[in-house]
Design goal:
Order of helices and strands: HEEEHEEEEEEEEEEHEEEEEHHEEEEEEE
Mean pLDDT: 83
Keywords: Membrane, Transmembrane, Transmembrane helix
Distance between the termini: 120 Å
InterPro entries: PA2928-like (IPR048161), Quinoprotein_ADH-like_sf (IPR011047)
Number of helices: 5
Shape: globular
Radius of gyration: 37 Å
Oligomer: single chain
Helix content: 10-25%
Number of strands: 25
Strand content: 25-35%
Largest sheet: 8 strands, antiparallel
Amino acid sequence: MFQDFRAAGPLPPHSQLVRSPYGTPEHPLEPKRRPRGIGGSILGFALLMTAGTFVAATGGEYLTAPEPDVMLRTGIAFSADGLALVPYDRAGSGGLLAELAADVNAVRLAAVDLATGETKWDVQLADELDRDAAAVGAGEQYAYIATAEGLEIRDLDDGALVIDAGDVPGLEGAGTGTAAYGLDPAAGVVALGFDGAFRTVALDALEAVPADPAVAEAWTGRLAAEGAASQLGGMTTTEASIGENATVRVEPTAAGAVTSRLVVSDDGRALGTGTYTEAAIVLDQTHATTAWDIDLDVDGLIDGLLEDPSAAEELIDDPTGAIDLTAPAGTAAGAASGHVLVEHRRTPGGEDYALTVLDLDTGQTTASIDTTDHAGRSMTAPGGQTIVIVAPADGHFQSDLLIVAADGSVDRAEFGALDLLGDPDTD
């Protein structure tokens, strides 16, 4: 029996509803914003606190860090307009950015105005303390600096690099290191090449030329094609020239006395009324080397040895006894401006030193500065000022530059101060 299973009535018409997560063009759907949880906020806060703590700790370390160690190098030069170009080593704390980069050691070059004692500019030469550097000379526009890589030229206005080491025209093959360069009063900067040839760079020139034969002869044996020039320590003596065939000398105040006074040789007068313990006269070392003529009668010496055999034995025992090798008295530092600088102990039996400036005409003390060690190199600037490298009373290294003016007054230039960003603080 056949059964009809069809519905009694037709199904109503319908269509399947399809939903898209993006909706339809007519009715687009936007995702609901979820409320932010506390996890992201905590993470951001933690990162902010960590960064703040790091900056605070580093900044605090910078603010409480000890003063940097500074030591002046002796390769100092003068410009035509009264600047002293002073290279120095700086080790220790730096600006905040330098502390973050762990870049706190450097060889730097400062330009000091000798009329005011203020630093005009201060630039970095190298970021390693063992790098060789010395100021060789300067004109009115440019400074000439010898480095381990060769000679570089800098602008005297701000210390900016004009020509890098190795790029000076005419100095191809020139020596490297400070021992290869010197300053000739007439020719300017003298350079020795690896080929043994001398070249010169006139002050304020930007290229080198072959040296004149007379200049080459004068500088033969005084330079080396590579290596560092020796650092010059201070020199003192008990008698020094003050010009016009006169000298000043140190004499004990009495036989066996521990104190001394200064006496001018030409008239025997005492220079002032002061007495000093372990006194010594500071010598001028503007020129790194000094030569003098020795009159030696070689033929007469040989004839004398042949006639008197015992003289030959004496010559063997004392090679200098038969020859007068006495050097002329060195020039007293400050003599160019009518002064003499005396180094002495501050107190009998004490450890600290003092540097006292005396007027050669009146004997009056014009200045006296406490130091912790012997004075370093002393030089006379073209303007008549005397500069002396010293270790200050509150320091351990020769970090300061004393400037003795024409009137005998003293200024002190300090080095190595940096601001928060690591730039030189020249104020």
